[in-house]
Design brief:
With 125 residues, this protein is mainly alpha-helical. Helix content is 38%, strand content 0%. The protein has helices at residues 3-6, 33-46, 52-55, 78-81, 86-95, 110-121. The N and C termini lie far apart (27 Å).
């Protein structure tokens, strides 16, 4: 069924695995309100293209999501997000995801990517 029509987004999506030791790496930044706010600004405004175009408000239902197969990741899905290590998210943001519409955000520095990860994690806490 069409997620834009039903307002439903799937949880589990296939992703290619980051290389070790990055896969198992935990976010080196403290999870503070300042860091999360910086991540929010990146997610909603500063990263180009904007994360919201595909991921919407975190639910994977952004305005571009209807044309993507597989659909964008649903960050509100706790059971899926709890099983994706920080290092995996870092790798996907930096390198994109082959076979999906997720581009590589090579213009973001490492600190910005870790800030984004803290913001993304708050969708399912």
């Amino acid at each position: 069924r069409d997620p834009l029509v039903t307002g439903v987004q799937t949880c589990a999506l296939p992703i290619s695995k980051a290389p070790e030791p990055l896969y198992s790496k935990t976010n080196p930044l403290a999870n503070t309100s300042d860091i999360v706010e910086k991540g929010r600004l990146l997610f909603q405004l500063d990263a180009q293209p904007s994360c919201t175009l595909c991921h919407g408000s975190g639910n994977g239902l952004g305005m571009m999501s209807g044309g993507l197969n597989p659909p964008p990741r649903n960050f509100t899905c706790k059971e899926t997000m709890d099983n994706i290590p920080d290092g995996q998210l870092f790798w996907i943001i930096k390198n994109g995801s082959v076979g999906t519409g997720m581009p590589a955000f090579t213009d973001l520095n490492d600190v910005q990517v870790w800030q984004l990860i803290h913001y993304i994690r708050q969708f399912h806490e």
